[in-house]
Design a protein that fits this description.
Layout: E1 11-15, H1 21-27, H2 30-37, H3 43-58, E2 63-70, E3 75-83, E4 93-100, H4 109-123, E5 128-134, H5 138-146, E6 150-156, E7 162-169
Parallel strand pairs: 4-5
Antiparallel strand pairs: 1-2, 2-3, 3-4, 5-7, 6-7
Helix pairs in contact: 1-3
Length: 175
């Protein structure tokens, strides 16, 4: 697996790894559980998922999960992931999902992470990024708008939850 660490000088994205599980569990709160994780994490479950993420990187699979890291020590502040395939995704469309731990919110880090991951996605052949936001999650919708995404209608997930869709065209450097 080649090293992938996009950075803007404030934060760096790097592939999630099993040893990130403890930091992730320490940062998990009700908002992450509700909007991103689908349920409270356990050490075994998070470690297994992060191992799966690492395997996806190794085989260039459709999931590319990054840790959002800040500071000289690369403190884990949250996650951002891309899905290059899946239900409702046309070829060239990439789903973006993100979450920050409570102590890191309100600093613009989610917007920075989304911008960085969109640049990475464009370089990997993505032509359009999609963010789906639960109606009762205005903070996430604000991140999408600040990162240049525009509203593209509404849909419902498998559980019937109303989601607002945001899209953004992707361009690789030099295109």
């Amino acid at each position: 697996m080649r090293a992938v660490e996009p950075s803007d000088g404030i934060l760096t994205l790097s592939p999630l790894r099993p040893e990130d599980a403890e930091a992730h569990l320490a940062g998990e709160d009700e908002r992450l559980v509700r909007y991103l994780n689908g349920g409270p994490g356990t050490r075994e479950g998070v470690t297994a998922y992060f191992r799966h993420c690492r395997e996806q990187w190794a085989v260039s699979g459709p999931l590319r999960a990054f840790g959002i890291r800040v500071g000289p020590g690369g403190t884990l502040a949250g996650t951002v992931d891309l899905r290059f395939g899946g239900a409702g995704l046309a070829p060239g469309r990439v789903n973006v999902a993100y979450g920050l731990y409570p102590s890191w919110r309100g600093r613009g880090l989610a917007t920075r992470a989304v911008l960085l991951v969109c640049g990475y996605a464009a370089g990997e052949g993505g032509r359009e990024a999609v963010i789906q936001v639960a109606e009762e999650n205005p903070a996430s919708a604000a991140v999408a708008r600040r990162a240049g995404f525009t509203p593209a209608g509404r849909t419902r997930d498998a559980d019937g939850v109303l989601l607002h869709r945001y899209v953004r065209e992707l361009r690789a450097a030099g295109r």
